[in-house]
């Protein structure tokens, strides 16, 4: 079993039980206790868990989000896969809103051949890329950049002006980038202003589509955007945790593995 697979399984067990122990994990995953300790150390450095004697416990709240530029190099292949899958859900004539995030930028890069699209966004990188795509005739339609206060660390726009502008629109689909997805807390993010914008995007849409690579699954961050029940579709490079399946099916949430 590869290291990344082991770490995903460890996080799944941690999400289910709230704590894990080295010896039972080594038996279940058929590796040495030392290998499990190394995996736990790596996951702690990534902020995914808290190391305790003999194992680890769940980290309830994760801290500040790294700057946008730094995050672009993290899980780049996985984000590209998610982005392509998300872009495939767009239909000709759709009105969509695309959230701030490195995964949503990959989605913007994957929009090809669509006709008569209207795209709203509060992301400078997404707007810039889509403007170039329009010039190159990769798709047809229009792009609306929402106005407001600039966050230079995250290359985003938010605040009261942005909220007032967004109140004027209704869209078919909202593509939401998130800080965490968990069964207990639902969809969460790091920044209050960006989370409020994400919530407005979902409220304005017929369907909210969440984009989340495996590092976001089972994670809780600072502010709640909306519960899992409010999501239409989740797109991830990870498979849906088994213990989530019944809850998602009951509430009509579709999980797509990219």
TrEMBL record:
This is DeoR/GlpR family DNA-binding transcription regulator. The lineage of its organism: Bacteria, Bacillati, Bacillota, Bacilli, Bacillales. Coiled coil: none annotated. The keyword ATP-binding does not apply. It comes from the Bacteria. InterPro entries: Carb_Metab_HTH_regulators, DeoR-like_C, DeoR_HTH, NagB/RpiA_transferase-like, Tscrpt_reg_HTH_DeoR_CS, WH-like_DNA-bd_sf, WH_DNA-bd_sf. Keywords: DNA-binding, Transcription, Transcription regulation. It comes from Ferviditalea candida. One of its GO terms (molecular function) is DNA binding. The keyword Transcription applies. Residues 3-58 form the HTH deoR-type domain.
